[in-house]
Write a structure and sequence with these properties.
alpha/beta; about 170 residues; single chain
Length: about 170
């Protein structure tokens, strides 16, 4: 008898409560990156992604996440982030910056907004000014940073590790 049997596409696990985490990203260069972010956000039970500009999803990449996520398209991030802050969200930027904390050591507040940066430009100085915290993922080789969708996946995993039931 086999010790492990492959079980493809198991039913999603139920969360005890919806995840209050919101993902916010500027206009990205690649619709592929946004589609990957939406897919992983849906997989971990996040319900809301704020994106800017002419954001659109590639349904072959986002898969069912395209139907599960409330994707809000905004002109800029500043106003939505200020609204989230007034609603009690902790604004956490994922960026290499002075004063940033390692994602390995950071303790998320349950009600947080994860703010991503542009693929090439990162998080703008105007947005950095309104963030509560900035976390970065240590890099041990070249290139000097992770792809935005990959970094978002790692940060979402860490948030879920800290709050496994929602």
């Amino acid at each position: 008898m086999a010790r492990f049997v492959h079980q493809r596409h198991q039913q999603p696990r139920a969360l005890s409560e919806p995840r209050p985490l919101v993902v916010a990203c500027p206009q990205l260069q690649s619709h592929v990156n946004l589609s990957r972010i939406v897919r992983v956000a849906s997989c971990v039970g996040i319900q809301r992604v704020i994106a800017c500009g002419n954001a659109s999803l590639n349904r072959n990449i986002a898969r069912d996440g395209a139907d599960q996520i409330a994707l809000e398209i905004r002109r800029t991030l500043e106003a939505p982030l200020r609204n989230l802050k007034s609603e009690g969200y902790r604004l956490v930027g994922l960026e290499q910056s002075t004063g940033s904390q390692s994602l390995f050591e950071y303790r998320f507040q349950k009600k947080s907004a994860l703010v991503l940066g542009h693929e090439r430009l990162g998080i703008t100085p105007e947005i950095l000014e309104i963030l509560d915290d900035v976390v970065e993922i240590p890099v041990f080789g070249l290139p000097f940073s992770y792809n935005v969708a990959t970094a978002a996946t790692m940060a979402l995993y860490e948030y879920c590790r800290q709050f496994p039931d929602g």
